[in-house]
Every structure is written in structure tokens, then in C-alpha cells.
Amino acid sequence: MTTMPEAAAPGAAAPRNDDVLLEVKDLQMHFPVSSGFLFQRTTAYVKAVDGVSFQVKRGETLGLVGESGCGKTTTGRCILQLYKPTGGQVIFDGQELTGMGTKAMRGMRREMQVIFQDPYSSLNPRMTAGNIIGEPLIVHGLVNGKIEYREKVADLLQNVGLNPYMADRFPHEFSGGQRQRIGVARALSVSPKFIVADEPVSALDVSIQAQIINLLEDLQAQFNLTYLFIAHDLSVVRHISDRVGVMYLGHMVEMAERNEIYRNPVHPYTKALLSAVPIPDPVLDAQRERVLLTGEVPSPLNPPSGCVFHPRCPVANDSCSRLVPELREVEPDHHAACLLATGYGTP
Ligand code: SF4
Description:
Helices cover 29% and strands 23% of the residues. By secondary structure, the protein is of the alpha/beta class. The chain has a domain at 267-347. β9 and β10 form a beta hairpin. Bound molecules: iron/sulfur cluster.
């Protein structure tokens, strides 16, 4: 595992690598669980994210995948400081965000936006599309007067493929795909550098998913955006991601360049996820090896010892329940947290 440089103080300028927009170091989000009727006390912690580190370069799309409950959405929320991480660092554009004061954080929020999963519940049903998109312009003081406001809203609607005359309609008058376009326009309104797209197409029909992904790609090129694209399905992130990170039970278990991870997955969990992705060619589909996982994802309240994947891993050995695998380089720019794949902990 790469050695991390000295921690930067909250809000202080960290040592800069201009290629890197976002750096997450040893991120932890442990939610306390309380019990007791009169005197509530913390009796346990849900380890939703437990020591995750990665970087996102400017203009890059990092896909983050894993089953429900693996910690990918919590990771996105910690980056945006919607949750205050219980450990680790989030360094955005050279600024350490964890521990940053509310006022300083308000300025940073303009740079980092989010697109939510559910376009049906994430839009206020009582606001028009124009007001949903334009509200951040007012909150951040980015417009002078009504004419400029209307022009900017019209531009944003056009940027996401909607007609400006739709500004006076309410969310229920749009289709699911159109609503997600409104969510994208709202995120774009403050000219962010970075967008967390949290399962942005999961609630949409398959035929609409490709349109939204293509839109996000076009906007990335047009506005030089950097994305963290969260999805539970490896087939969804394949098209849009430059690199892909796979999470399991609060840990990053594999990370590599997009084609490398699909061609040469080394972690047994990634292999299992990939073997469930349908291939259009029936001959190839029949030939490939299926990796079936047994059992449910364990509770993050009481994660397994050693490698957290060992109770479900088809190739686990005695070392796996004792030793915690670190994310190590298995090929250039290809990292995996598996004792066998990295040559550690063989019996
Ligand atoms: Fe499987 Fe062991 Fe590798 Fe974990 S460390 S993924 S249990 S082989």
C-alpha cells in the first residue's frame, strides 16, 4: 500500500498535485448504535466505511460499484461533507474538508454537487422546473436580476436537452428521464468542478439510462467536469468510467483502469460481480466461468474478522479469517485487497 504523506490540518492547503482534484485518505464513517431506555449509550458502531483511500484526477470519471450496503453512497456523502466522517481525510482541490468550518464549507459546496438516484423523490413537487434549477443561482448569489436569472435557467435547460418553455412546468409533468435531466441541470447551475452522481440511472428504464449517461459524458467534455459515478452494477459504470473501484462491506477491494478491471479482475468479489453481467454474445456467455456467491452480505455492525469477504469467498483459505488484506498493486495502476492475489497469507 502506498505510504500517505503527513496529514493536512482542517481547512489548510495540503501539498498540491495539480492533476488530482480529490484525494480520500483512510476514510472512516462509523455510525454509533445506541441502546437503553432512559440513559442512551453507544453500544456498537456500524462500520459503513472503514479505511477507504483513493484519488480522482481532474476531468476523470471514477466509477464506484458494489452491492447495496457496501458503503459507496456513504463514501460519496462523506466526500460532500453531508456526513462528517469519523476518521480520515477528504482533500478537495488542495483543501482539507473534514473539520472545515460551516462558512468555509459553504463556499466549497459550490464546487461539489450531487445528482441523486431517484428523480421522482429528489425534486420538490411544489416548485417549477425553472425554480428547481434556478434556486442554487439565488442561494449562491450568481445572478443579477430577473432577466439574467431567466436566461441562465433557459441555458441550463438547453444544456440538458430540455426546451426552455418547460421552465414553468412542475415535476409531475415530466417523464423519469426528463426529471433526471432537471436534477443534472440543477447540479450544473453553480458551475461545479466535481459531481457525485449517486446511482443516477438506477431508477430509469434501460432505454433511458444510455441517454442520461451520454448526456453526462457530453457535459463532462463541455464543462470539464470530474465525476464520482456510483452504481451497484458493473455494466452501468463500464461505459462512462475511466477507472473503476469495487467496494465490499466498507472496504475498497479492487481498483483499476476500466478495461483492465473487466479484462483481468483479480479479486474474487469482482470476478463474481463480473460473472453476473450479461454478455450479448450467447456463445461467449455460455463459455465463461460463473462465480456464484453464497450467503448474504454480513452486517457492518459485526463485520467478519480478517478479510471481510472470507465467509463468502469461493477460494478462501485459513489465512483469510486471520489476516486483513491491504490494497496492494498487482499490476501497474491495478490494486487489489486479496491475500491470494497479492501473494500474502498463503497457508
Ligand atoms: Fe478471498 Fe482470502 Fe482473497 Fe479475501 S483474502 S478475497 S477471503 S482469497
